[in-house]
Q: What sequence folds into this?
């Protein structure tokens, strides 16, 4: 199943994460994202999912990387915020900007820290 996600940074280098409200990973923190609908491009899906989960209007950019989690093939794209204020919606129980130090205190979905590190996408201090 093809999915997309967004790597969104604040001007100070923090990274936007969502606390997942539903399985898989309910209660854990992850990049915002979701399934690509039939006939939808990755770019359109990223814009839709970021709006639904975070309230932000984004412009998707380059592919940050791809991971496989069970049946999900997740393509995560760097995104630039065009408008909005982060607010949890849709499948997100919470949304917040996190620093590198925050990652040590949050219950992250399996492999997120290592994946972000391998993509050189860890938040700045």
A:
């Amino acid at each position: 199943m093809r999915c997309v996600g967004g790597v969104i940074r604040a001007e100070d280098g923090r990274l936007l994460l969502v606390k997942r409200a539903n399985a898989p990973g309910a209660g854990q923190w992850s990049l915002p994202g979701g399934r690509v609908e039939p006939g939808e491009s990755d770019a359109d899906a990223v814009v839709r999912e970021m709006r639904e989960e975070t309230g932000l209007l984004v412009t998707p950019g380059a592919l940050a990387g791809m991971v496989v989690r069970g049946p999900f093939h997740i393509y995560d794209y760097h995104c630039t915020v065009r408008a909005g204020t982060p607010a949890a919606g849709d499948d997100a129980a919470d949304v917040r900007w996190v620093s590198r130090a925050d990652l040590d205190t949050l219950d992250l979905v399996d492999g997120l820290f290592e994946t972000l590190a391998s993509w050189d996408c860890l938040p700045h201090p």
